[in-house]
Every structure is written in C-alpha cells, then in structure tokens.
Amino acid sequence: MQFQLPKIIFSFGAVSQLKDELKLLGVKRPLLASDKGLMAAGAVDHVRKANRDVDFVVHTDVPENPTTAGCETTARIYLDQKCDGLIALGGGSVIDTVKAAAVIVTSGKPLEGFLNRPDLINFTLAPIVTIPTTAGSGSEVSFGSGIHPDAHSRAMSAASVFSLPRLAICDPELTITLPPRLTAATGIDALSHCLEGYLSKTDNPFVDAMALDGMKRAFGNVERATKDGSDKAARAAMLMASSAGGISIHKGLGPVHAFAGVFGDRGFHHGTLVAIALPGAMRLAETRAPDKMKAIAQALGLEPGARVSDAIAALNGRLGLPKTLSAHGYGNYDFEEAVEATWKNRFNLTSPFEPTHEEIARLVREAFG
Question: What is the DSSP secondary-structure string of 202-217?
Fold first, then answer.
C-alpha cells in the first residue's frame, strides 16, 4: 500500500508562489507550456506578471489533445532555448504533453520508443511543475499521461512513477474563466476518477478516503460551477475534487476509461466521452460491486434505495452533456473491433470485477443509444 504525491500548494493566489518554488527546485529558465486559448484568456500573462523575476520561455502551441508531435515540439523548444525545467499551465492535455516532453529531453530519445513501455522510463526527469486551469484531469498530481500518436488515433500511455510532477500549484482563481461546457465535462471527469479509483480492487484506504471526499465535492458542486463560473467556493471545491481524482488514479481505473481510451480517436473531449460511458458503467458496478456502490451512494448524499447510475445520468442531463456518442456525432465505426479493444484495455485490469465481453458490448451499445 503506497502512493506518491508532488508537493501541493492549494489556495487562491497560489500562483504567485511559483518564483520562490522554482528557486527551491534550482530552476532558473523554465519553459512555460500552455495553449492558445489560455494565452488569449490572459492566463499566461497572469502567471508571468505574478512572477516577474522569472526568465520564462513561453510556448503556447500545445494541441487540444496531446499528440506525439506536440510533445516533440515542446521538447525541441526546451532544448533550443536551453531551459532547465518545465511548467505546464493548462488542463490535462497540456500537463500530459509536458510530462512526455520531459521524457524526451531527459533521455534524448524519440517518444515513440516509450509509449506503452513504462518500464523504460526508469530515470529521473527534468523538473515538472503543474498549474491546472481545469478541474478535471487530476494530471497535476498523478504520474499518468495519455499521448495520441496523432490527432485521430487512440491514446497510448507515457506513464511512469518518474513522471510525477515535483510541484502542483492549484490556484482556483485560474479556473474561473473556464467556459460552462468545459466546466461540466471536466467536472464529470473528476467525478469519474474518484468513482473508478474508489471502486478499484487495489487496496489503499488512504486513497479511498480521498476518493470518497472528492466524489462528494464533485457531485455537489459541478452544477454550481457550471452555472456560475465566478462562484469561488464551487470552483475551489471542484479543483480539490480534481486533485482528489488524480490521487485516486494511483489505485487504477476501470471500464469508463477503457471506453474513453478507445473512442478518443476522433478528437472528442475526454470528459464528454467519460460522461457518456459513466452511467452504464455504474449500472454494471451496482450489480457486480454492490457493497462499494452503497458506500458511493452514501457519499453522494443519495436517498436510501436511489441508484448512483440514475443520479449521474440525471446530472449529465442537467449539465447539458450528450447522452450518446451518436448524438455527439461519432459514427462509422467497427463495433466488434471497438468492443474487443475496450474489453482488452489495460484499465479493466484494476476494475473491482473482470468485465465480460458481453458486458463491455452492452456498455458500448448503450453509449451509442
């Protein structure tokens, strides 16, 4: 029973502490990686102004979904500009890109050789600092990262315990400008990490306690944060839930993320894919892991006898998230191949039960309506 965490600073205005923390890490010329949307929203300038003495190299062309090319570009800029540390300012895509770029700059080798080979990432990486601007992926406090070979392919893992960030600065103020659609989708993603982490067969009572607390925060605040982005209490609760979800990932995940990994090959937002699969996966868990699902229902504050699956489906509806992949525009796929790939996905290895081929087929059918 073990898990590792980065140093975490959590508070409104925490980003102003970055300059002092970089000194402690010995980082003098960090690469600040972000995306164009955050640059336009003023988040990049906000970080720079709060840390005026830092010699930032700024890179804001990280793609919406993390790709091998995006990681290689980030690594090339890091090396060309003689940087000595990486800062990820953004959501899961930016953070995962930075983690993979750290593998490249430290090893001096192309990323392709490390994908789905965590055993080969067995060396201390260049220092990574994460500053999340979404409340969903939890990547800021986990070692995981999913990288797509290109924008229209399934994600592959670039995860290793050596990819764990050194520092996570969790400043809820940076999430206030997150649009409602992304607030909803990333919020359900945070909820799913807590749910599947808690359900995982891996034994870790410490993580279980965080997962239960995180799912309560996410379930109780995602609507508030979506309806009123300036609700500071809701934003703080959601960012806390996101980090709790990232910690929960240390126990492993399950069929929801197996599904999202397979159907993430069309560039659709990961949180939306998770939201579509989550009710069906929870219905399956209610049959196969009833005791844990009772504890989840209690943590979510449901009435006696109420089903978690129904409550989440209703929550998705209130948030305006799509109910099926068909409604979201996903079509022309090989059903049998997709079911097989979902069934064999590595995330099912930590599920509290081993999903049967037919159970996964049912999940996929339901997700397509």
Answer: S--HHHHHHHHHHHHH
